[in-house]
Amino acid sequence: MNNIDRMYTSDPVEFARGYLEYLQAVLRRIDPAEIGRFIRTLLDARERAATIFFIGNGGSAATASHFANDLSIGTNEYDKPFRAFSLTDNVPILTAIGNDFGYEEIFVRQLRALGKSGDVLVGISASGNSPNLLRAFEYAGSIGISTVAITAFDGGKMKTLASHGIHVPTDCKEYGPAEDAHLVLDHLVTGYLMRYVRRG
């Protein structure tokens, strides 16, 4: 039984209070140094005009899209932009690869076509154990693409494969707080970068 199961009560107000208090506790346990390293990785990619790819499944796929949007367009930087893309967004490509080669190939085959040494791959996953993410991370590492794992639970295999990452400390199966925190990280990181590039 995880913390969300334990805090459940038939009173929605009490459940809301408990959930928000727990989410605050999770956020307080995230290491700011990991966030700082991720920000520096993104700034370095921008300086080199490297591409930053985001990947994830389910709710994390939505966060990958959100992150790429906020980084590439939301920073309002066009003279020296963040070249960020989410590999979750092209439905024809995803379904073609999934149908013809299997779901585990949906990200790695896009990386084989688009990625190059010096680029950055950001994987977003609560469990860190999705085969399609792991396959992409393994390929990225083999050709010199830097990898960043944004994880939760125990971080899974993706955390061990990554060059570095940001870990959200939640119990297993606590998808709600994990994905909430991942979206907070999106807004924290891109909020900082928007102001950084504005001030030159």
Structure description:
This protein has 200 residues and is α/β, with parallel strands linked by helices. It has one domain (31-198): Glucose-6-phosphate isomerase like protein, domain 1 (Rossmann fold), CATH 3.40.50.10490. Helices cover 56% and strands 12% of the residues. A 5-stranded parallel sheet has the order 2-1-3-4-5, sandwiched between helices. Helix 2 (12-28) crosses helix 9 (175-198), helix 4 runs parallel beside helix 9 (175-198) and helix 6 (108-114) runs parallel beside helix 7. The mean pLDDT is 97.
CATH architectural arrangement: 3-Layer(aba) Sandwich
* Low-pLDDT windows of residues: none
Number of strands: 5
Structural class: alpha/beta
Give the DSSP E fraction (strand runs of 2 or more residues): 5-15%
Lateral strand order in the biggest sheet: 2-1-3-4-5
Q: Quote the distance from N terminus to C terminus.
A: 49 Å
CATH topology: Rossmann fold
The largest pleated sheet is described as:
5 strands, parallel
Please give the share of residues in helix: 55-70%
**How many distinct folded domains?**
1
Mean pLDDT: 97
The total of helices stands at: 9
* Fourth CATH level, the homologous superfamily: Glucose-6-phosphate isomerase like protein, domain 1
Q: What is the CATH first-level class name?
A: Alpha Beta
Helix-strand sequence: HHHEHEHHEHEHEH
Give me the Rg, rounded. 17 Å
Dominant shape: globular
Topology, pairings included?
Elements: H1 3-7, H2 12-28, H3 32-47, E1 51-56, H4 59-72, E2 83-86, H5 91-101, H6 108-114, E3 120-124, H7 131-143, E4 146-151, H8 156-161, E5 164-167, H9 175-198
Parallel strand pairs: 1-2, 1-3, 3-4, 4-5
Helix pairs in contact: 2-9, 4-9, 6-7
